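Q: How would the structure tokens look for this protein?
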Amino acid sequence: MIDKEALNRLESDGAFQQLSAQMKKLNIFEILGITRTEIRHSSFLAWLLDPDASHGLGDRFLQAFVAKLGQAEQLPPNLSSCSVRREWQHIDLLLLCPEEKYLLCIENKVFSGEHDNQLQRYRDVLEREYPDYTKSFAFLTREGSFPEGEKDCQYWQPVSYTDVLDAIAETRKDAVITDEVEMLLSHYEAAVRRHIVEDAELERLCREIYDRHRDALDTIFETCKTTSAISGPIIVGWCREKADAGKLFFDSQFSNNTCTRFTTETIRRLLPPLDSPISGRKTNDIAYYEIWKRNDYFKITLTVCSDNMTEQQKNACAKISSFLKRPDKKENWRWKRLKNWPRHKIQANSETDEFKEEIKSLLDKDWNAIEEFEKKLLDQIG
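A: Here is the predicted structure in token form.
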């Protein structure tokens, strides 16, 4: 039975009205229907990256974006000769500075996945066409995930759309911006927060509404047959069970539908957290086990971020990398995959209980491997 009183209380709630008003705000990117069109995001980023474009911001965004790759030192001092190409040799974004012999290659994968060994092919083309150029390779995804190929991870730096928003914010600081450009940047930021990245304020508002009106919202979800990611709640539940048992540290605010993160006492002992939430994930921890979820598979990686890393952390990371035989391919890196566990393809039908049991069984298998891995780390590194 539908509880009409509960629905009326939801409709009259101030927080719900605030959320409704926020979702109805005019946004030019939503009006044009391009918020979830990958090629349009690439076009907007091409405009921002071009120092000579009509935004009048010069190379401010280019500088801020390359800094997010941890490669600011590679940028030449004079960027006046730079230009941006779209879809050259099927590459999403290619910035070329012929006078300074520098290039930036960006593969944008916010709404799609890799295919046909494309990252290797793009790098081969650029090495052949521009052999004497200094090169930066950026793998841009919703969450800043790594490429699938181990070799690609040596060259392509992961960068997220949160990093893009941060770069835009840094670009706007103390800049003289026309009203038209200010409007475009504001609308683009709002569209990205709403349709691509996790908006912390929006999430807080939704949680507040759901806590007060759980019955009404559950009725709406059931009536409208709304569903969420199938494997997500199972993986989150597994993490919470392990956290309740004191096996790991898990906070759902640092996870989302694409990636679930946790860390352990051993990782915090070897790579101590920062004193404040200034890591690449805006948390104190610089290293996480990350469970990357897709439609029919998941995989676990151990990833570390160098943002604001202390000398103690750098030395510890170098020791771990040496033990794992994963030396740094670049002097300045931002994200590094220290360890990968095998990808698990889920065989069971998602409509059955076996689906949940298979996922939990595979997670338990990986957990046993993680415990063995950490024991070896402590034995070797201490």
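Residues 36-195 form one domain.

Residues 52 and 58 are 6 Å apart (CA to CA).

Upvote if useful.
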